[in-house]
Amino acid sequence: MLFRPQVHRILDYVTVLVFAAAPTLFHLTGAPAVLAYVLAGVHLALTLATKFPDSGPRPVPIGLHAVTEFVVGVVLVTIPWFIWTGAARTFFVVAGVVILAVWMGTTYSERQHQHASS
User: Fold this and answer.
1) In Å, how far are 25, 26, 27, 29, 32 from 9, measured between CA atoms?
2) Average pLDDT taken over every residue of the chain
3) Beta bridge pairs of residue 50
4) DSSP of the chain
């Protein structure tokens, strides 16, 4: 796998910044802009609440974090095709693909990473 949990956490914060900046960068308005801001907030809350291997006590197990990102990625790749066109569709589909790529490339525990590198 490409990303250890510590790197994944950094990528999560980058994801938050991209979602927060998307309405300005990609000229999203209305519901797409609101969704981008909501996703920034939800992703931030999820990341802050996740028990990564090197973090203190947190309420969200890293496995639930992984499942949540998988579901969000799949939804972002599929749903925009039915409700938006143009920049909004492109942004959310690409965001979903990136989230799924990071999900697939992440070892969600140090133990898993040690087995993968053996």
Assistant:
1) 23, 25, 27, 28, 25
2) 92
3) 60
4) --B-HHHHHHHHHHHHHHHHHHHHHTT--HHHHHHHHHHHHHHHHHHHHEE-TTS---SEEHHHHHHHHHHHHHHHHHTHHHH--HHHHHHHHHHHHHHHHHHHTB--SHHHHHHHT-
15-74 pLDDT tens trace? 999 999 999 999 999 999 999 999 999 999 999 999 998 888 999 999 999 999 999 999
Q: Residue 101: what residue type?
A: A
What global pTM score does this model have? 0.90
φ and ψ at 51, to 5 degrees? Answer: -85, 85
Tens-place pLDDT, residues 86-100: 999 999 999 999 999
Q: Are 49 and 61 in contact (CB under 8 A)?
A: no
Backbone angles phi, psi at 63, to 5 degrees: -65, -40
89, 13 contact by CB (below 8 A): no
